[in-house]
Amino acid sequence: MKKIYFSMGGALALLLFLTAGALALGWNVYENGRFGYRIEYPALLEVLQESENGDGVILRSSDGRSELTVWGGYNVLEESMDGILEASQEAALERGWKVLDGSVDLAEDSCSVSYRDGNSLVAERHIMKGDVVAGFIMRSPEAEDFDTLIERMTASFRLLD
């Protein structure tokens, strides 16, 4: 009987751990020296590939179900945040994703948009400072803590001075 109790207790502990998600797993920081931005990301993501030109990185979970792409560049087309948001939403629709929400924050010179791609949630954020724009797209299976993860990533995502 004790063995069953501990097994059920272990299952409950595992369920609580998974519900806490990446928040319980810790966080890492990626800083890009070329375009001067940084972001915190869940430690369960591992660097898959750094870009050859030094503009960003692709990170993926070991099971391949979650992926984060982070990049930076110069705003050579002098796009506004409204224009960047519109282009992001159009690209998502072309991929067959359902756009859930989109907004521009002029005070922070940023925009955010969220999508659904089958059973995955996708969050995209862009920030601008001077002639530099940086962005990230996080794609992950639907989970209770997805919004919490994105909030933390968004709060940490910034262009450095």
What can you see in these coordinates?
This protein has 161 residues and is of the alpha+beta class. The chain has one domain (26-159): 3-Layer(aba) Sandwich (Protein Transport Mog1p, Chain A). Helix content is 30%, strand content 43%. It is built from 4 helices and 10 strands. The chain has helices spanning 2-20, 22-25, 81-94, 146-156, and strands spanning 27-32, 37-42, 45-50, 56-61, 67-74, 98-105, 110-117, 120-129, 132-141, 158-159. The longest helix is centred in the N-terminal third of the chain and has 19 residues, at 2-20. It starts with a helix and ends with a strand.
Quickly describe the structure.
The chain has 161 residues and is α+β, with helices and mostly antiparallel strands. The chain has four helices and ten strands, in the order ααβββββαββββαβ.
Structural key phrases:
161 residues; alpha+beta; Protein Transport Mog1p, Chain A; 7-stranded antiparallel sheet; 3-stranded antiparallel sheet; 4 helices; 10 strands; globular; disordered N terminus
